[in-house]
Structure formats: C-alpha cells, structure tokens
C-alpha cells in the first residue's frame, strides 16, 4: 500500500456559534499548517456543531503532539470538546469473539493487509473455538469462560487484560455476551458491536428465522457503539441486501454474514480514522 502522508486530525464538538470555522482555520494557518480535508455539520434542532479537520504535519511550526495544548485557548473560548491525533498513530484494538468466526477472520485479514491502520494486541473469547485464527495471525489469544454466576468475575478478568494491553477500542466481533453496565463504565474506551439485523428490527434470538417467517424482502446489519441500552447505542454504519422467496434460512444466514463483515469493517475503519462523532443517541460520520 502507498505510504500515508503524515497529518494531524482535529475533532471538535460544541454549540454552534459564529466564527468557529474561521477561527479554527486561522489557528492552523498561524502554525504553518496546510488543511487537507475539512467537514462540519450543525444539527439545527439541538444547535450542536461537529467538525473534523485534517491538516498536513509537514511545515508545522510546532510538533504535532503540542497542537492539543496550543489549541486549548481556542477550545475554551468556544467551550469545545476536542481531540487532536496524529494520523500515524495506530489504534490498539482488542477483539472479543465467541464461536462464530466470520467477522474476526475478516478483520484479521484486513489488518494483515494494513487496510485498517490498527494494532491487535489480543483476542479475547469465552470459548477456544477461534484460537486457530489467532495462531494463524500470531496474535495472543485469551479464553475466559463465562456463566451467569461467574460473569462479574469474568468481566473483571477481561477488563484487567484490556488495561494491560492499553487497548483504545474494543470490537465485539460476534461476541455473544451482553456486556454489563459495570464493564462499559470501567472499560475506558469505546466498544463497537455488530448486530445481525437492521436495527431496531428483529432484536433477540434467531433473527434470520424471524425475518424468514415474516417474509422480509431485505435483511441488514448494524454496527453501533455499545451502551447500557442493549442494541440501542449510537449507530455508526448500516447496510441492507435484497432477498427473495427462494432464499432459505441458511441463505439468509450466509448473506447476513457477508453484510456483518462489511458493515463492521466500515465501522472500525471510520472510527480509527476519527470520522465518527457521537452526540446524544446519534452520530455524525464524516466521509
């Protein structure tokens, strides 16, 4: 793959006011920066302003890791929440998986091809079914079996391992466990889940059987951030596929797996490229 040009990404979230874009652009210009990409959105109902700006590191008069501190006065003026991140930093991603391996295998192959610009320091599972994938790609694999009674202890073991590996993003690659509110409050980083339906339809067990029994004409997949509200976290990516009366339940499952792989990979890519901003129950995803 072509070598990435060194750049800095600036994410901004605040209430909309006059002059924000001009002030931010002026700040970058003042430090010798060249803007490579810029996009912003204002939610007219809530007056929320969200912005992503990417600028070249070449020519900057201060080191990229000092940009955040230098930007603080601007952020204070507009009461912004903001993040500054050099594009060269790879996001440390932990994979959670159970027995179904299709999403894990897809992400590992994309990682191998360096499509996602991530490091995967560990794969964690409640079964040993997917250990062969970890062995193939030479990634540490940890198994923590879980039952209803041992769930609190198991989650603490997983949290400890995530902390040890300094994980910045957790991906539930068909991890068939509900993460507790305690886990989500302590994990210290975003968690992305892939759901095997076009939410909010067909929540729960056997979604493809539900879809088949209803004679649906499309099936879908949804990637979202995990929250305390089961399967109701802010949505990052969705897609659908047309199906017909000749499709069996097995056909729906096969086609659904294809969708899940694509949708999850898109969501992970957009997150690690800092293209997703969450506000309330919604997201803005900049292309």
Description:
The protein is α/β, with parallel strands linked by helices. It has 2 domains: 7-86, 2-Layer Sandwich (Alpha-Beta Plaits), CATH 3.30.70; 91-285, 3-Layer(aba) Sandwich (Rossmann fold), CATH 3.40.50. It is 32% helix and 30% strand. The chain contains 8 helices and 13 strands. The longest helix has 24 residues, at 249-272. The protein starts with 6 loop residues before the first strand and ends with a strand.
Which word captures the global form? globular
SSE order: EHEEHEEHEHEHEHEHEEHEE
Biggest sheet: strands, sense, closure? 7 strands, mixed
- Any idea how many domains? 2
**Count of helical regions:** 8
Helical fraction equals 25-40%
SSE-based structural type: alpha/beta
For the CA atoms, what is the radius of gyration? 21 Å
CATH A-level architecture of the largest domain: 3-Layer(aba) Sandwich
Low-confidence stretches: none
CATH superfamily of the largest domain: Formyl transferase, N-terminal domain
Please indicate the percent range of residues in DSSP E strands (runs of 2 or more): 25-35%
Q: State the end-to-end CA separation.
A: 20 Å
Spatial order of the strands forming the largest sheet:
7-6-5-8-9-10-11
State the oligomer: single chain
Q: Which CATH class of the largest domain? A: Alpha Beta
Whole-number average pLDDT? 93
Per the CATH scheme, the topology name of the largest domain is Rossmann fold
